[in-house]
Amino acid sequence: MIPEHVTLVEVGPRDGLQNEAAPVSAAQKIELVHRLQAAGCREIEVTSFVSPKWVPQMADNAEVMAGLRRRPGVRYAVLTPNMKGLEAALASRPDEIVVFAAATEAFSQRNINCSIAESIDRFAPVVAAARAAGVKVRAAVSCTVGCPYQGAVTPDEVERVVLLLQGIGVQHMGIADTIGVGTPRAVQAVLERALKHFPLAEVSGHFHDTYGQALANIHAALQLGVHVFDASIAGLGGCPYAKGATGNVATEDVVFMLHGMGIATGIDLDALVDAGAYISGVIGRPTASRAGRALLAKRGVAVQAGAAA
Ligand code: HMG
Ligand code: MG
Q1: Distance (Å) from CA 85 to ligand 1 centroid
Q2: pLDDT for 308 beyond 90
Q3: Which of 41, 113, 187, 237 is the most interior residue, by most CB within 10 Å?
Q4: Is 49 in the pocket of ligand 1 (CB under 6 A)?
Q5: What gap in Å lies between CA 156 and CA 97, rounded to an integer?
Q6: Residue 309 has what pLDDT?
């Protein structure tokens, strides 16, 4: 059942940088995407077309998209919460858009300022218009294992939202553990609910590493055959509406584990570590990736300095 190939969706430029206090210029974001694609990343979540009042770090969305030197075979995705976001996003020619819902009412209100039902009503025309434009639509469901406001979340609550999103035509279901409280069996239980309604290739895991469980959760998901995962370069990030949530699992750590298991990713780990060192240098913090630190140390690079590659 364990897959031989895994697709990693690099979400560092979006999920990683959306909550970053240090200023990161559009040029630096573009450089990061270029380094990621040079390292072999084939799916990159570049930015989000959300309100700049809510998430100022993504206000340069159009500039970043316009500055990309696109590579054939690389797919560029952006987040869109509503029609206004979709219209701006389509002008920037994404390959994929992401609508993002929550498994809990409380998180939906905090994150996108509406109930779950209202969010589905908002997403329905977004999904229809994106598909009419030939753009694939992915959905992300936040707080599928735990919610910073509600607490524990049941698989039933998640499945309800999965079905609502399926009903409006989303083509892929991303199961997110926004605050990283999931453990392997809990994560398997929610993924199984998504797998009841979406094909294996269209279910992915998005695991924040707040409690150090993300690699174990990916391993648990692999056992179900799931072979698409989001990951964030240098372990960057967190969600502005989930206090204390750290970044997604570091892409370098996932690649190190998968390659060690003989699972192909198409990614060159050394070049990925360079990309992680680059962005860590930009934000002035050592990488949060354990594999990244170890490989830099092996090369004799001073990790503390935030070592630009
Ligand atoms: P709202 O305030 O309810 O929206 O926000 P509104 O329709 O009333 O509009 C208010 C103002 O925002 C208006 O401007 C609109 O034009 C503008 P004003 O008239 O005041 O000058 N506006 C926009 N501007 C640019 N782009 C847009 C847009 N929409 C409205 N698309 C809204 C609702 C959804 C817009 C807001 O709550 C928002 O932008 N939220 C962003 C939330 C976000 O980005 N969260 C992080 C991403 S999700 C995540 O990280 C989770 C994930 O990683 C998975 C996981 O880990 O769980 C995916
Ligand atoms: Mg996230």
Answers
A1: 8
A2: no
A3: 41
A4: yes
A5: 26
A6: 43
Substitution candidate for ligand 1 out of 47, 50, 65, 158 with most atoms within 8 A of CB = 50
Q: Which of 174, 268, 257, 276 is nearest to 214 (CA)?
A: 257
**Do 264 and 242 form a contact (C-beta atoms < 8 A)?**
no
DSSP 232: B
Between strands 151-152 and 228-231, the pairing is: unpaired
- Quickly state the pLDDT bin for 22 (edges 50, 70, 90): confident
Torsions phi, psi of 228, nearest 5? -130, 125
What amino acid positions are annotated as catalytic residues?
A: 239
Q: For the whole model, what pTM was predicted? A: 0.96
112 in contact with ligand 1, CB cutoff 6 A: yes
β-pair type (203-207, 228-231)? parallel
How far is Cα of residue 46 from the mean position of the Cα atoms in its chain? 10
Query: 3-class DSSP state for residue 35?
Result: helix
For the domain spanning 7-267, the CATH number is: 3.20.20.70
CB of 47 sitting under 6 A from ligand 1: no
C-alpha dist (Å) from residue 144 to 9, 24, 189, 272: 19, 30, 10, 29
Burial profile 151-181: b = 16 or more Cβ within 10 angstroms, e = fewer: eebebebbbebbebbeebebbbbbbbbbbbb
Report the separation in Å between the CA atom of 176 and the middle of ligand 2, taken as the mean of its atom positions: 7
Mean per-residue pLDDT of the chain:
95
Task: Give the model confidence (pLDDT) of 225-259 as tens digits.
Answer: 999 999 999 999 866 677 777 889 999 999 999 99
Ligand that lies nearest to the alpha carbon of residue 143, given by its number in the listed order: 1
Residue indicated by tokens 């391993």: 219
Chain position carrying tokens 């935030």:
306
